[in-house]
Design a protein that fits this description.
3-stranded antiparallel sheet, single chain, mainly alpha
Length: about 170
């Protein structure tokens, strides 16, 4: 992976994690947009990579995907849903932060263990795809929770609640 690709991936990761802690009204449309973009970019990166797709490489990627999907599910449940200004609001807390640290650590561990093996380049090339899948799974779990919750969603274009005590209801 080129230094620029790595820098962009880290920047997106920091932005995504930061967004989850600022909190915002739930938006069903925005929840899956970034994962889809990352997935497409990840598939493009894989297609452009000069990688030997061996059974070992596919095995490492499968292990990575199992871990990333499992942690995405748990992160989707860790996001707090509350009412703000009468609408459903989402915000991550300490459990979400711990799960992000575990997610990043697991991805780094898989990459380090695969590095130096014939599977290393394939694992490296799949970074954006696995990141997109992880965020997508997290988003799908969150959307299932939102649908089951039944509380009202803010109108499109509403990003954050006014944080004055008079508008906070949950």
């Amino acid at each position: 992976m080129s230094p620029l690709s790595l820098l962009l991936t880290v920047a997106v990761l920091v932005w995504v994690v930061q967004r989850q802690f600022v909190g915002r009204f739930v938006s069903t449309r925005r929840t899956l947009t970034l994962p889809l973009v990352l997935g497409v970019l990840g598939l493009f990166a894989i297609a452009q990579a000069h990688v030997e797709w061996t059974t070992a490489a596919l095995g490492w990627i499968a292990v990575d995907l199992v871990i990333t999907v499992a942690l995405g599910v748990v992160r989707g449940y860790a996001i707090n849903l509350s009412l703000r200004g009468g609408y459903l609001y989402q915000r991550g807390g300490v459990p979400t932060l711990v799960l992000w640290v575990l997610s990043i650590g697991a991805r780094v561990l898989v990459a380090v263990l695969a590095n130096g093996t014939p599977a290393g380049p394939a694992v490296e090339a799949s970074l954006l795809l696995t990141f997109g899948i992880s965020l997508g799974v997290q988003g799908l779990v969150l959307l299932a929770r939102v649908q089951a919750d039944g509380r009202p969603l803010a109108p499109a274009g509403t990003r954050r609640a006014n944080r004055s005590p008079s508008t906070l209801s949950g």
